[in-house]
Amino acid sequence: MAGGGGGAWKVAYADFVTALMALFMVLWISAQDQEILIATSQYFQSPFNSPMDASTGVLSDAAGGGNNSMSDADPSSIADLALLNKLAADFSKALNVDVTSEDAPIQVKITNDGLKLTIFDQASRPVFKQGSDEFTEWGDFVMQNLAWAMEQYPFRIRIDGHTSSRDVTDSRDYSAWELSADRANATRRSLQYYAVAPDRFERVTGFADTVPLPGKPADDPANQRIEISLVVLEPLRKNAL
Questions:
Q1: What is the pTM of this model?
Q2: What was the pLDDT predicted at 90?
C-alpha cells in the first residue's frame, strides 16, 4: 500500500521545528540587555508575579511604580533581583505562608536596597503575647526560620517595632513606646540566638503608634507589626545556593 509509514514523520518534523523555535528564543533573549534578561528570568521563575508587572508580587517596591525603575537602579542591585526574589520565595516556603498575599501574617517586598519583611501581630495569629515582648509559639517559629535564612546572606539588619494607637496606655512607666522598642529588641535577640551574628544588626527602633501603615487609621490592629529591613551591602551572587 502506497504512502506507508503513517504520520510518524510529521511528529518528528514538529519536534524539529519546536526545537528550532526554542533555539531562536534562547538566542534572541541572550542578545538583549541586562534589564530584559533579569525580567525574563523572573517571569519564567514566577509567571504570576512577574517583575514586568509592578503592581503584583514581591517585586512591587523595586521593579516599578513612581520614580523607581529598573533602568534607573544601580546595576549591581538589578543583578541581585533574582536572588532576592528567590530568598523571598524561601521565606514563603519555610513559613508555609504566601508572603505576597495582602492578608498574609508575613509580607516580603523587594526594595531598592534589599528586602523588607513585615510581620503582623494578628489577633488570629499573634506573634507576641498580649501586651508583652514575649513570643508566642508561632512568633518563635517565625524568628527561628527567618534567622536561618538571613544568616546565609550578607545583609545588614534594621528592625522597627510598631503598635496601633489601641496599645497606647496611660501608664507613666510603660507605654506604646516601650512596648514597640521592647518587641523590636526581642526580635533582635531571637534572631541572634538562632543564627544571626550580632554585628549584622544596624538599628533597632521603636516607633509606638506614630507610623501607621499607608491608608490605615492609627487604631487599626494591622499597625501592630515588626518590620525587618535586610540591606544589601555587597553582591549576593557569591552566596547563591
A1: 0.67
A2: 81
